[in-house]
Amino acid sequence: MPVRDNTRFLPTRRLLLAAGAASLAVPGLARAQGRFPDRPIQLVVPWPAGGSADAQLRSIADLVSAKAGQPFIIQNRPGAGGTLGPMQVAQQSRPDGYTLTQMHLSVLRRPWMMRTPQWDPVGDFTHIIGMTGWLFGCAVKADSRFQTWQEMIAYARANPGKLNYTTSGIGTTNHLAMETIQEKEGVQLTHVPFRGSNEAVTAVLGGQVDMVCDSSTWAPFVENNQMRALSVWTAERVQRFPNVPTLKELGYDLVVTSPYGVSGPKGMDEGVVRTLHDMMKEALMSPQNAEIRSRFDMPLVYQDTQTYRAFIAERVEYEKAMVRRLGLTLDG
After folding, report:
1. Phi and psi (nearest 5°) for 322?
2. pTM of the full predicted structure?
Protein backbone atom coordinates (compact mmCIF):
# COMPACT_ATOMS: atom_id res chain seq x y z
CA MET A 1 0.00 0.00 0.00
CA PRO A 2 1.54 3.36 -0.97
CA VAL A 3 2.45 5.68 1.85
CA ARG A 4 0.87 9.13 1.63
CA ASP A 5 3.35 12.01 1.60
CA ASN A 6 2.04 14.46 4.20
CA THR A 7 5.14 16.66 4.38
CA ARG A 8 3.62 19.22 1.99
CA PHE A 9 0.95 19.96 4.61
CA LEU A 10 3.55 20.78 7.34
CA PRO A 11 4.24 24.42 8.21
CA THR A 12 7.54 25.77 6.92
CA ARG A 13 9.22 25.76 10.36
CA ARG A 14 8.33 22.10 10.89
CA LEU A 15 9.70 21.24 7.45
CA LEU A 16 13.02 22.87 8.32
CA LEU A 17 13.17 21.05 11.65
CA ALA A 18 12.42 17.73 9.95
CA ALA A 19 15.15 18.30 7.38
CA GLY A 20 17.64 19.14 10.10
CA ALA A 21 16.74 16.04 12.11
CA ALA A 22 17.15 13.87 9.04
CA SER A 23 20.64 15.20 8.36
CA LEU A 24 21.63 14.57 11.98
CA ALA A 25 20.25 11.04 11.82
CA VAL A 26 22.40 10.27 8.79
CA PRO A 27 25.65 12.16 9.42
CA GLY A 28 27.59 10.15 6.89
CA LEU A 29 25.25 11.28 4.12
CA ALA A 30 26.03 14.95 4.70
CA ARG A 31 29.74 14.32 4.92
CA ALA A 32 29.79 12.12 1.83
CA GLN A 33 28.11 14.92 -0.16
CA GLY A 34 31.17 17.11 -0.01
CA ARG A 35 31.29 18.67 3.45
CA PHE A 36 34.18 16.45 4.51
CA PRO A 37 36.76 17.63 5.32
CA ASP A 38 35.81 20.99 6.76
CA ARG A 39 38.72 21.27 9.19
CA PRO A 40 42.31 19.99 9.48
CA ILE A 41 43.02 16.23 9.39
CA GLN A 42 45.76 14.81 11.62
CA LEU A 43 47.85 11.82 10.53
CA VAL A 44 49.83 10.20 13.34
CA VAL A 45 53.19 8.81 12.21
CA PRO A 46 54.48 6.47 14.96
CA TRP A 47 58.18 7.15 14.26
CA PRO A 48 60.48 10.11 14.81
CA ALA A 49 60.71 12.65 12.00
CA GLY A 50 63.32 12.03 9.33
CA GLY A 51 62.77 8.38 8.39
CA SER A 52 61.52 6.99 5.09
CA ALA A 53 57.90 6.44 6.21
CA ASP A 54 57.81 9.95 7.66
CA ALA A 55 59.02 11.39 4.35
CA GLN A 56 56.57 9.37 2.27
CA LEU A 57 53.58 10.24 4.46
CA ARG A 58 54.53 13.92 4.60
CA SER A 59 54.43 13.88 0.81
CA ILE A 60 50.96 12.31 0.95
CA ALA A 61 49.85 14.93 3.49
CA ASP A 62 51.06 17.83 1.35
CA LEU A 63 49.29 16.52 -1.74
CA VAL A 64 46.03 15.78 0.10
CA SER A 65 46.10 19.24 1.71
CA ALA A 66 46.20 20.84 -1.73
CA LYS A 67 43.36 18.61 -2.96
CA ALA A 68 41.11 18.87 0.09
CA GLY A 69 41.57 22.56 0.79
CA GLN A 70 42.24 21.71 4.43
CA PRO A 71 45.57 21.09 6.21
CA PHE A 72 46.60 17.44 6.44
CA ILE A 73 48.93 17.59 9.43
CA ILE A 74 51.62 15.04 10.34
CA GLN A 75 52.10 14.41 14.05
CA ASN A 76 55.09 12.24 15.03
CA ARG A 77 54.26 10.09 18.03
CA PRO A 78 56.97 7.41 18.42
CA GLY A 79 57.20 4.76 21.10
CA ALA A 80 56.45 1.11 21.89
CA GLY A 81 58.00 -0.17 18.67
CA GLY A 82 55.89 2.10 16.51
CA THR A 83 52.60 1.10 18.15
CA LEU A 84 52.05 3.88 20.71
CA GLY A 85 50.58 6.32 18.19
CA PRO A 86 48.17 3.84 16.53
CA MET A 87 47.04 2.54 19.94
CA GLN A 88 46.22 6.07 21.10
CA VAL A 89 44.35 6.81 17.88
CA ALA A 90 42.28 3.66 18.30
CA GLN A 91 41.47 4.29 21.95
CA GLN A 92 41.24 8.09 22.23
CA SER A 93 40.09 9.50 18.88
CA ARG A 94 36.61 10.07 17.52
CA PRO A 95 35.80 8.06 14.36
CA ASP A 96 35.03 11.20 12.35
CA GLY A 97 37.88 10.92 9.85
CA TYR A 98 39.90 13.78 11.33
CA THR A 99 42.45 11.60 13.16
CA LEU A 100 44.24 8.85 11.24
CA THR A 101 47.39 6.79 11.72
CA GLN A 102 49.95 4.86 9.78
CA MET A 103 49.09 1.16 9.97
CA HIS A 104 52.09 -1.20 9.83
CA LEU A 105 52.76 -4.82 10.68
CA SER A 106 53.99 -4.22 14.22
CA VAL A 107 50.51 -2.94 15.09
CA LEU A 108 49.12 -6.29 13.91
CA ARG A 109 51.74 -8.29 15.80
CA ARG A 110 52.39 -6.61 19.14
CA PRO A 111 49.06 -7.44 20.88
CA TRP A 112 49.89 -11.14 20.70
CA MET A 113 53.23 -10.52 22.40
CA MET A 114 51.43 -9.24 25.50
CA ARG A 115 49.96 -11.27 28.32
CA THR A 116 46.75 -9.29 27.86
CA PRO A 117 46.35 -7.76 24.38
CA GLN A 118 45.57 -4.05 24.61
CA TRP A 119 43.95 -3.66 21.19
CA ASP A 120 42.39 -5.68 18.39
CA PRO A 121 44.15 -4.89 15.09
CA VAL A 122 41.02 -5.78 13.12
CA GLY A 123 38.15 -4.64 15.32
CA ASP A 124 39.61 -1.47 16.83
CA PHE A 125 40.46 0.25 13.54
CA THR A 126 38.84 1.31 10.28
CA HIS A 127 41.38 0.34 7.64
CA ILE A 128 41.35 2.69 4.65
CA ILE A 129 44.16 2.14 2.12
CA GLY A 130 47.33 0.13 1.58
CA MET A 131 50.21 2.19 0.21
CA THR A 132 53.81 1.03 0.18
CA GLY A 133 56.52 -0.79 2.10
CA TRP A 134 60.13 -0.42 3.12
CA LEU A 135 63.52 -1.35 1.80
CA PHE A 136 65.07 -3.21 4.73
CA GLY A 137 68.66 -4.26 5.08
CA CYS A 138 71.65 -4.52 7.39
CA ALA A 139 74.56 -2.09 7.32
CA VAL A 140 77.71 -1.53 9.34
CA LYS A 141 80.05 1.43 9.71
CA ALA A 142 82.53 1.75 6.85
CA ASP A 143 85.49 0.83 9.06
CA SER A 144 83.78 -2.28 10.47
CA ARG A 145 85.73 -5.54 10.55
CA PHE A 146 82.95 -7.11 8.44
CA GLN A 147 83.25 -6.87 4.69
CA THR A 148 80.46 -9.39 4.01
CA TRP A 149 77.38 -10.91 5.63
CA GLN A 150 79.14 -14.27 5.88
CA GLU A 151 81.98 -12.72 7.89
CA MET A 152 79.45 -11.21 10.29
CA ILE A 153 77.71 -14.56 10.80
CA ALA A 154 81.02 -16.36 11.32
CA TYR A 155 82.03 -13.84 13.98
CA ALA A 156 78.64 -14.11 15.69
CA ARG A 157 78.92 -17.90 15.75
CA ALA A 158 82.35 -17.74 17.38
CA ASN A 159 81.36 -14.96 19.82
CA PRO A 160 77.81 -15.59 21.14
CA GLY A 161 76.09 -12.39 22.29
CA LYS A 162 79.09 -10.15 21.66
CA LEU A 163 77.89 -8.67 18.38
CA ASN A 164 74.96 -6.27 18.69
CA TYR A 165 72.51 -4.81 16.21
CA THR A 166 69.80 -2.16 16.33
CA THR A 167 66.25 -1.91 15.00
CA SER A 168 63.37 0.52 15.44
CA GLY A 169 61.89 -1.50 18.29
CA ILE A 170 61.07 -4.81 19.94
CA GLY A 171 58.57 -6.81 17.94
CA THR A 172 59.02 -4.84 14.72
CA THR A 173 59.15 -6.67 11.41
CA ASN A 174 62.91 -6.22 11.10
CA HIS A 175 63.42 -7.49 14.65
CA LEU A 176 61.41 -10.64 13.89
CA ALA A 177 63.38 -11.19 10.69
CA MET A 178 66.61 -11.03 12.65
CA GLU A 179 65.24 -13.46 15.22
CA THR A 180 64.36 -15.85 12.39
CA ILE A 181 67.88 -15.54 10.94
CA GLN A 182 69.50 -16.21 14.32
CA GLU A 183 67.28 -19.25 14.79
CA LYS A 184 68.31 -20.63 11.40
CA GLU A 185 72.03 -19.92 11.89
CA GLY A 186 72.19 -20.97 15.53
CA VAL A 187 73.82 -17.68 16.53
CA GLN A 188 73.11 -15.19 19.30
CA LEU A 189 73.16 -11.45 18.64
CA THR A 190 72.31 -8.74 21.17
CA HIS A 191 69.33 -6.61 20.16
CA VAL A 192 69.52 -2.86 20.91
CA PRO A 193 66.13 -1.30 20.03
CA PHE A 194 65.68 2.37 19.21
CA ARG A 195 62.54 4.44 18.55
CA GLY A 196 63.27 4.89 14.85
CA SER A 197 65.66 3.99 12.06
CA ASN A 198 67.32 7.41 11.96
CA GLU A 199 68.33 7.05 15.62
CA ALA A 200 69.59 3.53 14.89
CA VAL A 201 71.81 4.75 12.07
CA THR A 202 73.21 7.51 14.28
CA ALA A 203 74.12 4.91 16.93
CA VAL A 204 76.03 2.80 14.39
CA LEU A 205 77.85 5.80 12.94
CA GLY A 206 78.79 6.82 16.47
CA GLY A 207 80.20 3.39 17.27
CA GLN A 208 77.67 2.57 20.01
CA VAL A 209 76.17 -0.34 18.02
CA ASP A 210 77.81 -2.72 15.54
CA MET A 211 75.08 -3.00 12.92
CA VAL A 212 71.73 -1.49 11.93
CA CYS A 213 69.03 -3.80 10.56
CA ASP A 214 66.23 -1.49 9.57
CA SER A 215 64.57 0.51 6.82
CA SER A 216 66.60 2.44 4.28
CA THR A 217 67.61 5.47 6.35
CA TRP A 218 71.08 3.88 6.14
CA ALA A 219 71.09 3.99 2.32
CA PRO A 220 72.49 7.53 1.82
CA PHE A 221 75.32 6.73 4.23
CA VAL A 222 76.18 3.63 2.18
CA GLU A 223 76.20 5.76 -0.97
CA ASN A 224 78.61 8.28 0.53
CA ASN A 225 80.85 5.51 1.91
CA GLN A 226 80.19 6.15 5.61
CA MET A 227 78.50 2.75 5.93
CA ARG A 228 78.64 -0.64 4.19
CA ALA A 229 75.50 -2.67 3.42
CA LEU A 230 75.77 -6.39 4.13
CA SER A 231 72.34 -7.47 2.90
CA VAL A 232 69.05 -6.22 1.48
CA TRP A 233 65.74 -7.92 2.19
CA THR A 234 63.98 -7.43 -1.13
CA ALA A 235 63.06 -10.20 -3.57
CA GLU A 236 65.78 -9.04 -5.99
CA ARG A 237 68.90 -6.91 -5.67
CA VAL A 238 68.33 -3.18 -5.38
CA GLN A 239 69.36 -1.21 -8.45
CA ARG A 240 71.46 1.36 -6.61
CA PHE A 241 73.21 -1.34 -4.53
CA PRO A 242 73.89 -3.98 -7.19
CA ASN A 243 76.69 -5.66 -5.22
CA VAL A 244 74.67 -6.20 -2.04
CA PRO A 245 73.09 -9.69 -1.81
CA THR A 246 69.49 -10.40 -0.86
CA LEU A 247 68.57 -12.64 2.06
CA LYS A 248 67.39 -15.26 -0.42
CA GLU A 249 70.81 -15.27 -2.06
CA LEU A 250 72.34 -15.71 1.39
CA GLY A 251 70.29 -18.85 1.99
CA TYR A 252 67.21 -17.57 3.84
CA ASP A 253 63.70 -18.00 2.48
CA LEU A 254 62.84 -14.42 3.47
CA VAL A 255 61.56 -11.38 1.60
CA VAL A 256 60.76 -8.54 4.00
CA THR A 257 59.09 -5.33 2.77
CA SER A 258 56.50 -4.84 5.56
CA PRO A 259 53.69 -3.17 3.59
CA TYR A 260 51.86 -0.36 5.37
CA GLY A 261 48.83 1.85 4.91
CA VAL A 262 46.56 4.31 6.69
CA SER A 263 43.74 3.58 9.12
CA GLY A 264 41.47 5.37 11.56
CA PRO A 265 39.49 4.46 14.69
CA LYS A 266 36.73 1.87 14.44
CA GLY A 267 33.27 3.00 13.38
CA MET A 268 34.17 5.49 10.66
CA ASP A 269 31.50 6.41 8.14
CA GLU A 270 32.04 4.60 4.84
CA GLY A 271 31.39 7.78 2.85
CA VAL A 272 34.25 9.47 4.69
CA VAL A 273 36.41 6.39 4.15
CA ARG A 274 35.79 6.59 0.39
CA THR A 275 36.70 10.28 0.34
CA LEU A 276 39.92 9.69 2.26
CA HIS A 277 40.82 6.65 0.16
CA ASP A 278 40.33 8.52 -3.10
CA MET A 279 42.36 11.55 -2.01
CA MET A 280 45.22 9.43 -0.67
CA LYS A 281 45.22 7.13 -3.69
CA GLU A 282 45.55 10.13 -6.02
CA ALA A 283 48.45 11.40 -3.90
CA LEU A 284 50.09 7.96 -3.81
CA MET A 285 49.99 7.64 -7.60
CA SER A 286 51.37 11.14 -8.19
CA PRO A 287 54.84 11.77 -9.66
CA GLN A 288 55.77 13.68 -6.50
CA ASN A 289 55.12 10.72 -4.20
CA ALA A 290 56.67 8.29 -6.67
CA GLU A 291 59.87 10.35 -6.46
CA ILE A 292 59.92 10.08 -2.65
CA ARG A 293 59.35 6.32 -2.81
CA SER A 294 62.09 5.97 -5.41
CA ARG A 295 64.49 7.92 -3.20
CA PHE A 296 64.02 5.36 -0.43
CA ASP A 297 63.48 2.31 -2.70
CA MET A 298 59.96 1.88 -1.32
CA PRO A 299 57.81 -0.44 -3.48
CA LEU A 300 54.29 0.55 -4.52
CA VAL A 301 51.92 -1.80 -2.66
CA TYR A 302 48.57 -0.10 -3.30
CA GLN A 303 45.47 -1.89 -1.95
CA ASP A 304 41.95 -0.50 -2.06
CA THR A 305 39.85 -0.46 1.10
CA GLN A 306 38.30 -3.91 0.82
CA THR A 307 41.53 -5.57 -0.31
CA TYR A 308 43.48 -3.88 2.47
CA ARG A 309 40.97 -5.00 5.12
CA ALA A 310 41.20 -8.59 3.87
CA PHE A 311 45.00 -8.37 3.94
CA ILE A 312 44.95 -7.08 7.53
CA ALA A 313 42.67 -9.88 8.72
CA GLU A 314 44.78 -12.57 7.04
CA ARG A 315 48.08 -11.09 8.19
CA VAL A 316 46.94 -10.92 11.83
CA GLU A 317 46.62 -14.71 11.86
CA TYR A 318 50.10 -15.05 10.36
CA GLU A 319 51.57 -12.72 12.98
CA LYS A 320 49.89 -14.63 15.84
CA ALA A 321 51.45 -17.85 14.59
CA MET A 322 54.88 -16.22 14.17
CA VAL A 323 54.85 -14.83 17.73
CA ARG A 324 53.95 -18.27 19.11
CA ARG A 325 56.62 -20.02 17.03
CA LEU A 326 59.41 -17.68 18.14
CA GLY A 327 58.13 -17.41 21.71
CA LEU A 328 58.24 -13.61 21.63
CA THR A 329 56.78 -11.91 24.69
CA LEU A 330 56.97 -8.45 26.24
CA ASP A 331 57.46 -7.81 29.94
CA GLY A 332 54.41 -6.68 31.84
Report:
1. -65, -45
2. 0.77
Q: For residues 200 and 278, state if they share a domain.
A: no
Same domain, yes or no: 148 and 175: yes
- Do residues 45 and 126 share a domain? yes
Q: Which of 197, 232, 267 is the last residue of a domain?
A: 232
Look at strands 164-167 and 211-215 and give their pairing.
Answer: parallel
Q: What is the number of structural domains in the chain?
A: 2
pLDDT of residue 51: 86
Q: CA-to-CA distance for 13 and 294, rounded, in angstroms?
A: 59
| Contact between 103 and 260 (Cβ < 8 Å) | yes
Q: Quick one: how far is CA 236 from the chain centroid?
A: 22
Residues in the chain: 332
Q: Give domain status of residue 21, yes or no.
A: no
pLDDT beneath 50, residues of the chain: 1-33, 332
Distance CA 268, CA 106 (A): 22
Residues 54, 83, 99, 307, CA torsion sign: positive
